[in-house]
Each structure stands twice: as structure tokens, then as C-alpha cells.
Amino acid sequence: MDEFGLDVVDLRKSFEAPNGDRIEVLRGVTFNAKHGEVVAITGPSGSGKSTLLHLLGGLDTADHGTITFDGNEITSLDERKLSTLRRTQIGFVFQFHNLLPDLSAIENVALPLMIAREKRGYAYERAASLLHDARLDDREDHPISHLSGGEQQRVALARALVTHPRLLLADEPTGNVDAAIGEELGKALVSYVRNNGAVAIMATHSPTLAALCDRVFVLEVGKTRINQ
Ligand code: ADP
Ligand code: MG
Questions:
Q1: Inter-residue long-range contacts of 78-83, CB under 8 Å, 24+ positions, other chains counted
Q2: Looking at ligand 1, which residue's alpha carbon is closest to its atom 6?
């Protein structure tokens, strides 16, 4: 499997503006990422970073081009196969954590495994171990809404890692936390990828975070072409 990884070829995506104009956001994005690699996507707000991550995760469909992960062409999968792929191989970390506020930290982290019908004992053991790595042992049973922004984002990373994803997609994961927590999150993400031979694509505005990555790509508004 290791000769594969993520391969993106000539990806294009446009949206329709309210006045009917087409907004061309991605105009032929081509890049690849090998196992064990973390690729940073930078670029100003509106340059298409989130759009690109949504396409990579099969949350939206491209107008043109292909995305292949470990030999599996994501861009040609039907919704049922995409949903299996998302559940079993992809981990997402969003800028605003997207955790369930009324559930506890450990319930949030264990949830993807419960949905995948893993045994409850295993799910909670694995969730506890990730929360331990995130230095949140004493917050396991706290509802998400009682945690600080930095704690919530560390829980969000734990949830993204709980299924051992092969492809980790992070959309400005530290955009909403202070610099020290941001760097800690970035290092945890990078070490997961290196230790597990996963692939991560991370949109970020932070030079500190980009510096932790193996390569940095820049998306530019209006002339979106990523070169390596
Ligand atoms: P970034 O994450 O780099 O800030 P986005 O990918 O969110 O950029 O957005 C890129 C451009 O695409 C923006 O101009 C945005 O307004 C537009 N856009 C994104 N999603 C949609 C949508 N669903 N419908 C219309 N326009 C969209
Ligand atoms: Mg964005």
C-alpha cells in the first residue's frame, strides 16, 4: 500500500454566485502527498482551502479532475462507498470543533467507534488513551460546553484520530486557539502522521504550524494552481 498516498490531478471547482456568475475557486489543482507526510495549504481567506479539503474528504464533488487515495479513486465513488471511506479512513478536524456540546469529552471521542459498531469497551479505552495523550484525563466526563476553546480543540483532534484514519484533513485546526495550544495540536497531528504512516493535509494561516509540515502549498485567489 505504501507506494500510494494522495494524488490530486487537475481539480476544478466553481460555485454559482447569487447573481448567477460562476466563481471559479479551484482552477486545476495538482499535487500529491506520500504516507508519513504532512502538507500545509496556505493562502488568503477565500482562496479555496476549505473547498479543497471538502473535496478531498468527499464532502462535496469536483467539477473536474481526480482525487485518488491509496489507489482508490475518491472522485468516482458513490455516496454509500464515500460514507464508508469517510467513516473508516478519513479523520477531520475543523476550525470550530463541531463536537456535540451536551456529550462529555470521552463520549464525543468514542462516538465514531460506536457508530462503526466497535465494542463499547474498546471504544472507551481508545478514547481515554487519546484524551490522556491530550492531557485531558481529568476532563473526560465534562460536557464539551464546559471546556475551554483549547481543550475543545484537543478533544476534536482526539476524535479525528480515534478510528486510526489513513487520511487526516484539518481545516485551520488552530485558528481559534492560542499560540501555545496551537503548536501543541500541530505537533500531536504531525507525530500521529509520522508514527502511523498516515497522510495529512492541513489548511493553516500559522507560519509556526506550516513550519512543522513537510511541504507548504499556497493557494492564490483567482489563479488557483498548486505546484510542488
Ligand atoms: P478559504 O477556506 O480559503 O477561506 P473557501 O474554500 O471557504 O476559502 O471559499 C473559497 C471561495 O468560494 C469564497 O469566495 C467563497 O465565498 C466561495 N464559496 C465556498 N463555498 C461556497 C458555496 N457553497 N457556494 C458559493 N460560494 C462558495
Ligand atoms: Mg476556510
A1: 82/58
A2: 48
Locus of grid cell 468514542? 110
Mutational pocket test of ligand 1: of 29, 51, 59, 61, the residue with most ligand atoms within 8 Å of the beta carbon: 51
Residue nearest to atom 14 of ligand 1 (CA): 46
pLDDT tier at 176, thresholds 50, 70, 90 = confident
What cell was used for 186?
500541530
* DSSP H or E stretch at residue 125: helix 120-133
Distance CA 188, CA 159 (A): 13
The C-alpha cell at 13 is: 471547482
* Residue 154 near ligand 1, beta carbon < 6 Å: no
Nearest to 134 by CA among 148, 115, 153, 113: 153
Residue nearest to atom 13 of ligand 1 (CA): 46
Q: Is residue 18 left, alpha or beta, with left meaning phi > 0 and alpha meaning psi from -120 to 50?
A: alpha
Ligand 1 pocket test: pick from 12, 14, 15 the residue with the most ligand atoms within 8 Å of its Cβ.
Answer: 15
Integer distance in angstroms from the first to the last C-alpha of the chain? 23
Tens of pLDDT, residues 8-39:
999 999 999 899 999 999 999 999 999 999 99
15 lines ligand 1 (CB under 6 A): yes
Q: Across the chain, what does the average pLDDT equal?
A: 92
